[in-house]
């Protein structure tokens, strides 16, 4: 097996692990789908959006 085949195989394995992690994360988060949250920074918004959750409120301190 050449380097290209090894890298391609590693990429396939990594993608499978990432998909499994995504499924596990969504399963865990689904238990809290109606839980309201408040955060004090908009940096959490990426997590909320990428996991298809509804942002309830954001409190920005200056």
TrEMBL record:
This is Zinc ABC transporter, periplasmic-binding protein ZnuA. Residues 4-35 form a coiled coil. Keywords: Coiled coil.
